[in-house]
Protein backbone atom coordinates (compact mmCIF):
# COMPACT_ATOMS: atom_id res chain seq x y z
CA UNK A 1 0.00 0.00 0.00
CA UNK A 2 1.27 3.46 -0.85
CA UNK A 3 2.21 5.49 2.21
CA UNK A 4 0.57 8.86 2.87
CA UNK A 5 2.43 12.12 2.28
CA UNK A 6 2.56 12.54 6.05
CA UNK A 7 4.29 9.19 6.47
CA UNK A 8 6.63 9.85 3.55
CA UNK A 9 7.64 13.13 5.14
CA UNK A 10 8.57 11.33 8.33
CA UNK A 11 6.50 13.77 10.27
CA UNK A 12 7.13 14.03 13.97
CA UNK A 13 4.74 15.86 16.18
CA UNK A 14 6.90 17.54 18.74
CA UNK A 15 5.27 20.75 19.66
CA UNK A 16 3.23 22.03 22.49
CA UNK A 17 -0.38 22.85 22.70
CA UNK A 18 -1.73 25.18 25.28
CA UNK A 19 -4.49 24.25 27.46
CA UNK A 20 -7.66 24.98 29.06
CA UNK A 21 -10.43 24.98 31.57
CA UNK A 22 -14.04 25.81 30.92
CA UNK A 23 -16.92 26.89 33.06
CA UNK A 24 -19.96 29.08 33.25
CA UNK A 25 -19.44 32.72 34.11
CA UNK A 26 -20.58 33.46 37.64
CA UNK A 27 -21.53 29.82 38.08
CA UNK A 28 -21.19 27.88 41.30
CA UNK A 29 -21.06 24.13 41.43
CA UNK A 30 -20.94 22.09 44.60
CA UNK A 31 -18.89 19.06 43.65
CA UNK A 32 -20.13 17.27 46.73
CA UNK A 33 -22.94 15.49 48.39
CA UNK A 34 -24.81 17.21 51.21
CA UNK A 35 -26.34 16.06 54.45
CA UNK A 36 -30.07 15.33 54.53
CA UNK A 37 -30.66 18.61 56.32
CA UNK A 38 -29.31 20.52 53.33
CA UNK A 39 -25.64 20.89 54.10
CA UNK A 40 -22.65 20.05 56.22
CA UNK A 41 -21.71 21.59 59.53
CA UNK A 42 -18.67 23.40 58.11
CA UNK A 43 -18.14 26.05 55.47
CA UNK A 44 -17.40 24.63 52.01
CA UNK A 45 -13.94 24.63 50.50
CA UNK A 46 -14.18 27.02 47.58
CA UNK A 47 -12.07 26.51 44.46
CA UNK A 48 -12.19 29.46 42.09
CA UNK A 49 -11.64 28.48 38.45
CA UNK A 50 -10.75 31.12 35.84
CA UNK A 51 -10.60 29.76 32.31
CA UNK A 52 -11.87 30.08 28.75
CA UNK A 53 -15.60 29.44 28.55
CA UNK A 54 -15.51 31.30 25.23
CA UNK A 55 -12.91 32.08 22.61
CA UNK A 56 -10.31 30.00 20.80
CA UNK A 57 -9.53 27.79 23.82
CA UNK A 58 -13.10 27.05 24.87
CA UNK A 59 -12.90 23.38 23.87
CA UNK A 60 -9.80 22.79 25.96
CA UNK A 61 -11.55 24.20 28.99
CA UNK A 62 -14.34 21.68 28.85
CA UNK A 63 -11.84 18.83 28.85
CA UNK A 64 -9.89 20.11 31.84
CA UNK A 65 -12.91 21.07 33.93
CA UNK A 66 -14.43 17.63 33.43
CA UNK A 67 -11.15 16.20 34.67
CA UNK A 68 -11.02 18.54 37.67
CA UNK A 69 -14.44 17.44 38.85
CA UNK A 70 -13.59 13.77 38.43
CA UNK A 71 -10.24 14.21 40.17
CA UNK A 72 -11.97 15.64 43.23
CA UNK A 73 -14.48 12.81 43.16
CA UNK A 74 -11.74 10.19 42.87
CA UNK A 75 -9.54 11.65 45.62
CA UNK A 76 -12.46 11.94 48.06
CA UNK A 77 -13.77 8.43 47.45
CA UNK A 78 -16.93 9.77 45.87
CA UNK A 79 -17.95 11.95 48.84
CA UNK A 80 -16.63 15.21 47.38
CA UNK A 81 -15.77 16.23 50.93
CA UNK A 82 -12.38 17.03 52.43
CA UNK A 83 -11.85 17.30 56.18
CA UNK A 84 -15.64 17.13 56.55
CA UNK A 85 -16.19 20.10 54.20
CA UNK A 86 -17.98 20.14 50.85
CA UNK A 87 -15.90 21.12 47.83
CA UNK A 88 -17.46 23.92 45.76
CA UNK A 89 -16.29 25.05 42.34
CA UNK A 90 -16.95 28.67 41.36
CA UNK A 91 -16.24 29.07 37.66
CA UNK A 92 -15.49 32.27 35.73
CA UNK A 93 -14.98 32.84 32.00
CA UNK A 94 -11.84 34.77 31.00
CA UNK A 95 -12.56 34.56 27.26
CA UNK A 96 -8.82 34.19 26.74
CA UNK A 97 -8.35 37.86 27.72
CA UNK A 98 -5.83 38.72 30.46
CA UNK A 99 -7.69 41.82 31.65
CA UNK A 100 -10.89 39.82 32.06
CA UNK A 101 -8.94 37.10 33.81
CA UNK A 102 -7.61 39.54 36.41
CA UNK A 103 -11.08 40.97 37.04
CA UNK A 104 -12.62 37.54 37.44
CA UNK A 105 -9.83 36.35 39.73
CA UNK A 106 -10.17 39.42 41.96
CA UNK A 107 -13.91 38.84 42.14
CA UNK A 108 -13.32 35.25 43.24
CA UNK A 109 -10.79 36.30 45.86
CA UNK A 110 -12.58 39.36 47.25
CA UNK A 111 -16.29 38.60 46.86
CA UNK A 112 -16.46 34.81 46.84
CA UNK A 113 -13.58 34.38 49.29
CA UNK A 114 -12.23 31.32 47.50
CA UNK A 115 -9.59 29.22 49.21
CA UNK A 116 -7.72 28.14 46.07
CA UNK A 117 -7.42 29.36 42.45
CA UNK A 118 -7.25 27.02 39.46
CA UNK A 119 -6.84 27.50 35.68
CA UNK A 120 -6.27 28.66 32.94
CA UNK A 121 -6.47 27.62 29.30
CA UNK A 122 -4.48 30.68 28.28
CA UNK A 123 -0.87 31.27 29.31
CA UNK A 124 -1.42 35.02 28.94
CA UNK A 125 -4.32 34.87 31.40
CA UNK A 126 -2.39 32.66 33.81
CA UNK A 127 0.56 35.08 33.75
CA UNK A 128 -1.79 37.96 34.57
CA UNK A 129 -3.37 36.10 37.49
CA UNK A 130 -0.12 34.75 38.97
CA UNK A 131 0.77 37.90 40.99
CA UNK A 132 -2.66 37.79 42.67
CA UNK A 133 -1.83 34.40 44.16
CA UNK A 134 1.11 35.98 45.97
CA UNK A 135 -0.85 39.11 46.90
CA UNK A 136 -3.67 37.13 48.50
CA UNK A 137 -1.50 34.20 49.65
CA UNK A 138 -3.66 31.64 47.86
CA UNK A 139 -2.52 28.53 46.00
CA UNK A 140 -2.85 28.85 42.22
CA UNK A 141 -2.94 25.33 40.73
CA UNK A 142 -2.14 25.97 37.06
CA UNK A 143 -3.29 23.62 34.32
CA UNK A 144 -3.02 23.49 31.36
CA UNK A 145 -1.34 26.85 30.52
CA UNK A 146 2.08 25.79 29.23
CA UNK A 147 4.33 28.87 29.07
CA UNK A 148 7.65 28.22 30.80
CA UNK A 149 7.65 31.60 32.54
CA UNK A 150 4.75 30.62 34.80
CA UNK A 151 7.15 28.44 36.78
CA UNK A 152 10.13 30.51 35.62
CA UNK A 153 10.53 34.26 35.81
CA UNK A 154 6.86 34.77 36.80
CA UNK A 155 7.03 32.15 39.55
CA UNK A 156 6.01 32.80 43.14
CA UNK A 157 5.77 30.26 45.94
CA UNK A 158 1.96 29.97 45.70
CA UNK A 159 2.09 28.68 42.11
CA UNK A 160 1.94 24.94 41.46
CA UNK A 161 1.45 23.39 38.02
CA UNK A 162 0.14 19.93 37.16
CA UNK A 163 0.17 20.77 33.45
CA UNK A 164 3.37 20.16 31.51
CA UNK A 165 5.24 23.22 30.24
CA UNK A 166 6.68 24.03 26.83
CA UNK A 167 10.14 22.77 27.76
CA UNK A 168 8.73 19.37 28.69
CA UNK A 169 7.14 19.19 25.24
CA UNK A 170 10.39 20.14 23.52
CA UNK A 171 12.49 17.75 25.59
CA UNK A 172 10.13 14.93 24.68
CA UNK A 173 10.62 15.30 20.95
CA UNK A 174 13.23 17.93 20.05
CA UNK A 175 16.28 15.69 19.88
CA UNK A 176 14.27 13.15 17.89
CA UNK A 177 13.32 15.86 15.39
CA UNK A 178 16.92 16.83 14.73
CA UNK A 179 18.08 13.22 14.46
CA UNK A 180 15.25 12.06 12.21
CA UNK A 181 13.78 15.02 10.32
CA UNK A 182 16.44 17.58 9.52
CA UNK A 183 18.77 20.23 10.83
CA UNK A 184 17.08 23.51 9.83
CA UNK A 185 13.61 24.56 10.97
CA UNK A 186 11.01 27.24 10.30
CA UNK A 187 8.97 27.75 13.48
CA UNK A 188 5.34 28.84 13.13
CA UNK A 189 3.44 29.80 16.28
CA UNK A 190 0.64 32.09 17.49
CA UNK A 191 1.67 35.62 18.46
CA UNK A 192 1.04 35.03 22.16
CA UNK A 193 2.80 34.28 25.43
CA UNK A 194 2.34 30.58 24.71
CA UNK A 195 3.64 30.78 21.15
CA UNK A 196 6.80 32.69 22.09
CA UNK A 197 7.47 30.46 25.09
CA UNK A 198 7.02 27.35 22.98
CA UNK A 199 9.38 28.56 20.25
CA UNK A 200 11.99 29.55 22.83
CA UNK A 201 11.85 26.10 24.42
CA UNK A 202 12.10 24.29 21.09
CA UNK A 203 14.92 26.53 19.92
CA UNK A 204 17.02 25.64 22.94
CA UNK A 205 16.40 21.92 22.59
CA UNK A 206 16.96 21.88 18.83
CA UNK A 207 20.19 23.89 19.03
CA UNK A 208 21.54 21.68 21.82
CA UNK A 209 20.87 18.67 19.58
CA UNK A 210 22.78 20.23 16.68
CA UNK A 211 19.91 21.82 14.73
CA UNK A 212 18.93 25.41 13.99
CA UNK A 213 15.73 27.43 13.79
CA UNK A 214 16.36 29.56 10.73
CA UNK A 215 13.14 31.59 10.84
CA UNK A 216 10.38 32.29 13.35
CA UNK A 217 6.89 33.26 12.18
CA UNK A 218 4.36 34.60 14.71
CA UNK A 219 0.78 34.53 13.45
CA UNK A 220 -2.29 36.30 14.92
CA UNK A 221 -4.10 33.78 17.12
CA UNK A 222 -7.40 34.22 15.27
CA UNK A 223 -5.88 33.56 11.82
CA UNK A 224 -7.85 31.29 9.51
CA UNK A 225 -5.79 31.79 6.32
CA UNK A 226 -2.31 30.35 6.80
CA UNK A 227 -1.44 30.23 3.12
CA UNK A 228 1.08 33.14 3.12
CA UNK A 229 2.95 31.70 6.09
CA UNK A 230 3.05 28.19 4.66
CA UNK A 231 4.26 29.44 1.29
CA UNK A 232 7.00 31.42 2.99
CA UNK A 233 8.06 28.32 4.90
CA UNK A 234 8.30 26.31 1.68
CA UNK A 235 10.34 29.06 0.01
CA UNK A 236 12.79 29.13 2.94
CA UNK A 237 14.29 25.80 1.83
CA UNK A 238 14.46 24.72 5.48
CA UNK A 239 14.27 21.02 6.20
CA UNK A 240 11.38 21.13 8.66
CA UNK A 241 8.29 23.20 9.43
CA UNK A 242 7.83 23.26 13.20
CA UNK A 243 4.30 24.19 14.29
CA UNK A 244 3.26 25.28 17.78
CA UNK A 245 -0.48 25.88 17.83
CA UNK A 246 -3.42 25.89 20.18
CA UNK A 247 -7.08 26.64 19.66
CA UNK A 248 -9.71 26.68 16.96
CA UNK A 249 -7.40 27.73 14.11
CA UNK A 250 -5.68 24.36 14.13
CA UNK A 251 -8.27 22.73 11.90
CA UNK A 252 -7.79 25.36 9.20
CA UNK A 253 -4.02 25.16 9.54
CA UNK A 254 -3.80 21.42 8.98
CA UNK A 255 -6.35 21.52 6.18
CA UNK A 256 -4.24 24.10 4.36
CA UNK A 257 -1.05 22.09 4.97
CA UNK A 258 -2.74 19.21 3.15
CA UNK A 259 -4.11 21.42 0.35
CA UNK A 260 -0.69 23.00 -0.33
CA UNK A 261 1.01 19.59 -0.08
CA UNK A 262 3.56 21.05 2.32
CA UNK A 263 4.61 17.59 3.48
CA UNK A 264 5.80 16.78 -0.05
CA UNK A 265 8.12 19.80 -0.07
CA UNK A 266 9.50 19.83 3.46
CA UNK A 267 9.03 17.82 6.61
CA UNK A 268 6.46 18.97 9.13
CA UNK A 269 6.47 18.64 12.87
CA UNK A 270 3.68 19.55 15.28
CA UNK A 271 2.03 18.40 18.47
CA UNK A 272 -0.53 15.59 18.42
CA UNK A 273 -3.71 17.52 19.26
CA UNK A 274 -6.90 16.48 21.00
CA UNK A 275 -9.32 14.06 19.34
CA UNK A 276 -11.17 16.83 17.48
CA UNK A 277 -7.85 18.09 16.17
CA UNK A 278 -6.80 14.62 15.01
CA UNK A 279 -10.08 14.31 13.12
CA UNK A 280 -9.40 17.66 11.45
CA UNK A 281 -6.01 16.39 10.26
CA UNK A 282 -7.74 13.65 8.27
CA UNK A 283 -6.60 10.21 7.14
CA UNK A 284 -3.70 11.79 5.29
CA UNK A 285 -1.90 12.08 8.62
CA UNK A 286 -1.64 8.29 8.95
CA UNK A 287 1.89 7.40 9.94
CA UNK A 288 2.60 10.72 11.64
CA UNK A 289 4.88 10.35 14.65
CA UNK A 290 5.02 12.89 17.41
CA UNK A 291 4.93 13.81 21.07
CA UNK A 292 1.82 14.05 23.16
CA UNK A 293 1.10 14.84 26.79
CA UNK A 294 -1.82 12.39 27.03
CA UNK A 295 -4.10 10.05 25.13
CA UNK A 296 -6.50 7.98 27.16
CA UNK A 297 -5.34 4.65 25.73
CA UNK A 298 -1.68 5.12 26.71
CA UNK A 299 -1.30 5.06 30.53
CA UNK A 300 -1.69 1.74 32.30
CA UNK A 301 -2.61 2.46 35.92
CA UNK A 302 -5.66 2.32 38.18
CA UNK A 303 -6.13 6.11 38.20
CA UNK A 304 -6.40 6.29 34.42
CA UNK A 305 -8.65 3.22 34.31
CA UNK A 306 -11.00 4.94 36.79
CA UNK A 307 -10.88 8.20 34.82
CA UNK A 308 -11.71 6.51 31.51
CA UNK A 309 -14.59 4.54 33.02
CA UNK A 310 -16.19 7.45 34.86
CA UNK A 311 -15.64 10.02 32.11
CA UNK A 312 -17.38 7.72 29.64
CA UNK A 313 -20.22 7.22 32.09
CA UNK A 314 -20.65 10.92 32.98
CA UNK A 315 -19.91 12.56 29.62
CA UNK A 316 -20.55 9.77 27.08
CA UNK A 317 -17.03 10.14 25.69
CA UNK A 318 -13.49 9.18 26.67
CA UNK A 319 -11.23 11.71 28.40
CA UNK A 320 -9.25 13.91 26.04
CA UNK A 321 -5.87 15.64 25.84
CA UNK A 322 -6.34 18.08 28.71
CA UNK A 323 -8.64 16.00 30.90
CA UNK A 324 -5.69 14.25 32.53
CA UNK A 325 -4.22 17.51 33.80
CA UNK A 326 -7.51 18.61 35.33
CA UNK A 327 -7.98 15.21 36.93
CA UNK A 328 -4.54 15.36 38.50
CA UNK A 329 -5.08 18.96 39.64
CA UNK A 330 -8.20 17.85 41.49
CA UNK A 331 -6.33 15.02 43.17
CA UNK A 332 -3.41 17.30 44.10
CA UNK A 333 -5.71 19.90 45.69
CA UNK A 334 -7.48 17.27 47.77
CA UNK A 335 -4.28 15.52 48.84
CA UNK A 336 -2.65 18.83 49.73
CA UNK A 337 -5.56 19.83 51.97
CA UNK A 338 -5.55 16.42 53.64
CA UNK A 339 -1.83 16.66 54.37
CA UNK A 340 -1.98 20.27 55.59
CA UNK A 341 -5.30 19.80 57.45
CA UNK A 342 -5.97 23.31 56.20
CA UNK A 343 -6.71 25.51 53.18
CA UNK A 344 -4.27 28.18 54.40
CA UNK A 345 -1.99 29.12 51.53
CA UNK A 346 1.31 28.91 53.41
CA UNK A 347 0.41 25.56 54.96
CA UNK A 348 -0.55 24.22 51.55
CA UNK A 349 2.77 25.37 50.09
CA UNK A 350 4.59 23.31 52.72
CA UNK A 351 2.32 20.31 52.10
CA UNK A 352 2.59 20.36 48.32
CA UNK A 353 6.30 21.05 47.86
CA UNK A 354 7.98 17.82 46.83
CA UNK A 355 4.70 15.89 46.91
CA UNK A 356 4.20 13.04 44.45
CA UNK A 357 0.62 12.72 43.22
CA UNK A 358 -0.64 9.54 41.58
CA UNK A 359 -2.54 10.91 38.59
CA UNK A 360 -3.83 9.90 35.19
CA UNK A 361 -0.37 9.38 33.64
CA UNK A 362 1.28 7.92 36.71
CA UNK A 363 3.48 9.86 39.14
CA UNK A 364 3.54 13.67 39.06
CA UNK A 365 6.06 15.27 41.44
CA UNK A 366 6.06 18.97 42.34
CA UNK A 367 9.69 20.06 42.37
CA UNK A 368 10.58 22.09 45.46
CA UNK A 369 12.54 24.61 43.38
CA UNK A 370 9.75 25.75 41.04
CA UNK A 371 6.64 23.66 41.82
CA UNK A 372 6.54 22.35 38.25
CA UNK A 373 5.17 18.81 38.14
CA UNK A 374 7.56 16.49 36.34
CA UNK A 375 5.55 13.72 34.69
CA UNK A 376 5.54 11.02 31.99
CA UNK A 377 5.34 12.10 28.34
CA UNK A 378 4.87 10.13 25.12
CA UNK A 379 6.06 9.72 21.55
CA UNK A 380 3.30 8.19 19.43
CA UNK A 381 2.32 7.28 15.89
CA UNK A 382 -1.10 7.95 14.33
CA UNK A 383 -2.61 4.75 12.93
CA UNK A 384 -5.93 3.58 11.53
CA UNK A 385 -7.78 1.18 13.83
CA UNK A 386 -11.10 -0.58 13.51
CA UNK A 387 -13.88 1.00 15.52
CA UNK A 388 -12.42 4.53 15.51
CA UNK A 389 -13.43 7.41 13.25
CA UNK A 390 -10.03 9.09 13.72
CA UNK A 391 -6.38 8.08 13.60
CA UNK A 392 -5.40 6.59 16.95
CA UNK A 393 -2.19 7.60 18.78
CA UNK A 394 -0.27 4.38 19.44
CA UNK A 395 2.72 4.25 21.73
CA UNK A 396 6.25 4.34 20.37
CA UNK A 397 7.99 5.34 23.59
CA UNK A 398 7.03 6.54 27.05
CA UNK A 399 9.41 9.19 28.38
CA UNK A 400 10.00 9.22 32.11
CA UNK A 401 9.48 12.33 34.29
CA UNK A 402 13.24 12.54 34.76
CA UNK A 403 13.96 12.31 31.02
CA UNK A 404 11.73 15.30 30.29
CA UNK A 405 12.34 17.37 33.43
CA UNK A 406 12.61 21.01 32.29
CA UNK A 407 15.38 23.37 33.42
CA UNK A 408 14.80 25.36 36.61
CA UNK A 409 14.66 28.99 35.48
CA UNK A 410 13.16 30.94 38.38
CA UNK A 411 15.31 33.05 40.68
CA UNK A 412 13.22 32.72 43.84
UniProtKB/TrEMBL annotation:
CDD domains: PBP1_SBP-like (cd06328). Coiled coil: none annotated. Residues 44-385 form the Leucine-binding protein domain. Keywords: Signal. SUPFAM superfamilies: Periplasmic binding protein-like I. It holds the Pfam family Peripla_BP_6. PROSITE patterns: PROKAR_LIPOPROTEIN. Transmembrane segments: none annotated. The keyword Iron does not apply. It comes from the Bacteria. Residues 1-27 form the signal peptide. PANTHER family: LEUCINE-SPECIFIC-BINDING PROTEIN, PERIPLASMIC BINDING PROTEIN OF ABC TRANSPORTER FOR NATURAL AMINO ACIDS. Belongs to the leucine-binding protein family. This is ABC transporter permease. The lineage of its organism: Bacteria, Bacillati, Bacillota, Bacilli, Bacillales.
Amino acid sequence: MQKSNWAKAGILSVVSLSMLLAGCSDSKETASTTDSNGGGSKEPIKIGVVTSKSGALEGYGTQELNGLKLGIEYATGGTNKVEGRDVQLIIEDDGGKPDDGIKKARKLLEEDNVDILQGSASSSVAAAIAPLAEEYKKIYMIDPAAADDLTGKNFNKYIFRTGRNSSQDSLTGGKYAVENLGKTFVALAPDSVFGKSSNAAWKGTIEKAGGKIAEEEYVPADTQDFTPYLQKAIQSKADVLLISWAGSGGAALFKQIAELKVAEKMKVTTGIPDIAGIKAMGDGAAGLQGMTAYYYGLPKNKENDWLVEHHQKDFNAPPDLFTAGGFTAGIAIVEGIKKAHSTDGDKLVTALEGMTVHGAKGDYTFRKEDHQAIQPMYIVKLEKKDGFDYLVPTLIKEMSPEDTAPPITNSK
